[in-house]
């Protein structure tokens, strides 16, 4: 499901045509933490530990250090060890808190995780179904970089931990647990042991830095005598994944770490900017909005009055109810193109067309024509796109409880329409300020009457091969590349991915879902009215799969 508020001037005679991928919202705003499994009070039984098998068992005890349990000597190496760490100016209770929160960066869940009492709660909270569905799309490709950054900060901010890691010298470090075959060894040595590998990688870098510092303190003759053994250490470092592990870390006085393995620090990538609609500094916000709309053309709008995760959930339920109606019920409110018995040509329901590149169904409504000053139903002259709304009606045989859903649907989407109208007017006020115009410059186009409409949208999965026209750059699209035609579009993604924006370098930028936030872009009518200064950006929706 998706909703898109389309705001068109009553003088423009044009509307927005495409919509975003649909989906579900969490069952509540920010889920409260629930223990997923009861804590055990059982005393540790050392005999229960499974022996290592495979390659790790070839190492003698002197060359192998295993860690996992709190009763073991090297428990500090785990992310559950209670050691606060400061990263990017924010203090985290443990590295586990930081690591789990980075899955949801840019959402409210990030801060919720930071405030959880224990690392286990942070771990379990991130796996709750209503939370995990908001996990960032690129997590698989960046999670090791995030982990390395967390470990580096942890060990370089605590001298005792740093010394303990260096004292392991060349020992193999193994997170020994049957619970995890990625970060751990799987209990039998068959796992990847990525946590242990990253710790050894960090240790090599710290050893190099310690060695380099020692060399700087030695007399020149001593440096020459030690050069051969030191070069061997450099060669070992250069065999790591990066071509230059010596540049892996640089540490400032406040211990803020930079890592060449973290592209989001060393090679910043563009992202859709976030604007706070509640910011008291209107001029600053207005200036930022204009800058974004002159360049990227898309932004996210936070703190929209009356709109939050709960409102998003309520609207999603209304979407699901409508699109689950029988086809004949939806066709009863369909446009003339889909049902020639109806008089409505623009508003109402439109169905699926398997031969078209955009595979979607939708329902659209707006301000009722009876409230438009000067409009008379007997004559459409002067109001070519103004018509009455058509609402689904209960059948005579439906009981009272079933009839309530029809009333609830109309109330819910009507309430959301008014929220979006208010938000769009407020946004256009900021845009006017940023353009150096009077704050109410755009009001006469939308107040008191407007052609603005709200569209509910559903992209069901295709049950057949997509047509050739639905393939762009090897991607299956459910909404082809296009530019919106109206003034301003306010979009709700309901947590689903797929929306992409075409940047000036002809690359596609993914618009990441943001709970309780609106995606805003501007249309061709507004762009042309500013002489092209404001961008009407090309965008599309690729098919991420699923319902």
UniProtKB/TrEMBL annotation:
InterPro entries: DIOX_N, IPNS-like_FE2OG_OXY, IPNS-like_sf, NADAR, Oxoglu/Fe-dep_dioxygenase_dom, YbiA-like_sf. The keyword Oxidoreductase applies. It holds the Pfam family 2OG-FeII_Oxy. The keyword rRNA-binding does not apply. GO terms for molecular function: metal ion binding; oxidoreductase activity. Keywords: Iron, Metal-binding, Oxidoreductase. Coiled coil: none annotated. Signal peptide: none annotated. Residues 450-547 form the Fe2OG dioxygenase domain. Belongs to the iron/ascorbate-dependent oxidoreductase family. This is Fe2OG dioxygenase domain-containing protein. It comes from Amphimedon queenslandica (Sponge).
């Amino acid at each position: 499901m998706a909703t898109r508020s389309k705001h068109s001037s009553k003088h423009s005679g044009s509307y927005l045509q495409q919509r975003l991928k649909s989906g579900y919202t969490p069952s509540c705003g920010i889920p409260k933490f629930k223990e997923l499994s009861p804590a055990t009070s059982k005393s540790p039984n050392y005999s229960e530990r499974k022996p290592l098998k495979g390659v790790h068992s070839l190492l003698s005890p002197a060359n192998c250090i295993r860690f996992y349990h709190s009763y073991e000597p090297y428990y500090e190496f785990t992310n559950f060890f209670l050691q606060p760490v400061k990263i990017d100016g924010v203090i985290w209770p443990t590295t586990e808190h930081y690591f789990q929160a980075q899955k949801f960066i840019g959402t409210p869940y990030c801060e919720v995780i930071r405030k959880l009492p224990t690392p286990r709660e942070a771990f379990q909270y991130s796996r709750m179904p209503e939370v995990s569905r908001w996990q960032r799309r690129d997590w698989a490709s960046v999670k090791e970089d995030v982990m390395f950054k967390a470990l580096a900060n942890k060990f370089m901010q605590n001298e005792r931990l740093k010394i303990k890691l260096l004292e392991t010298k060349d020992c193999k470090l193994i997170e020994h647990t049957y619970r995890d075959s990625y970060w751990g060894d799987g209990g039998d040595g068959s796992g990847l042991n990525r946590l242990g590998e990253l710790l050894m990688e960090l240790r090599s870098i710290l050893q190099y830095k310690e060695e380099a510092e020692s060399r700087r303190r030695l007399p020149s003759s001593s440096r020459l005598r030690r050069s051969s053994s030191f070069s061997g250490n450099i060669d070992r470092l250069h065999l790591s994944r990066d071509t230059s592990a010596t540049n892996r870390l640089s540490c400032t006085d406040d211990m803020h770490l930079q890592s060449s393995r973290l592209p989001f620090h060393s090679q910043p990538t563009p992202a859709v900017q976030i604007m706070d609609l509640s910011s008291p500094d209107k001029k600053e916000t207005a200036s930022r909005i204009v800058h974004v709309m002159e360049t990227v053309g898309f932004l996210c709008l936070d703190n929209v009055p009356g709109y939050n995760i709960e409102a998003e959930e309520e609207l999603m339920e209304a979407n699901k109810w409508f699109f689950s109606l029988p086809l004949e019920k939806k066709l009863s409110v369909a446009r003339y193109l889909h049902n020639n018995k109806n008089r409505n040509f623009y508003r109402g329901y439109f169905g699926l067309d398997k031969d078209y590149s955009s595979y979607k169904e939708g329902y659209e409504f707006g301000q009722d024509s009876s409230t438009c000053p000067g409009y008379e139903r007997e004559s459409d002259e002067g109001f070519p796109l103004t018509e009455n709304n058509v609402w689904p009606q209960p059948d005579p045989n439906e009981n009272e409880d079933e009839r309530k859903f029809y009333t609830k649907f109309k109330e819910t989407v009507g309430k959301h329409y008014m929220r979006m109208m208010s938000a769009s007017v407020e946004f256009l006020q900021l845009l006017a300020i940023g353009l150096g115009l009077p704050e109410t410059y755009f009001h006469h186009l939308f107040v008191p009457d407007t052609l603005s409409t709200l569209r509910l949208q559903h992209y069901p999965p295709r049950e057949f091969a997509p047509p050739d026209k639905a393939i762009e750059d090897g991607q299956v699209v459910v909404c082809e590349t296009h530019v919106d035609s109206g003034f301003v579009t306010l979009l709700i993604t309901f947590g689903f991915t797929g929306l992409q924006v075409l940047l000036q370098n002809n690359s596609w930028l993914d618009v990441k879902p943001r709970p309780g936030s609106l995606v805003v872009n501007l249309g061709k009518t507004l762009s042309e009215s500013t002489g092209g200064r404001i961008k009407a950006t090309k965008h599309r929706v690729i098919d991420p799969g699923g319902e």
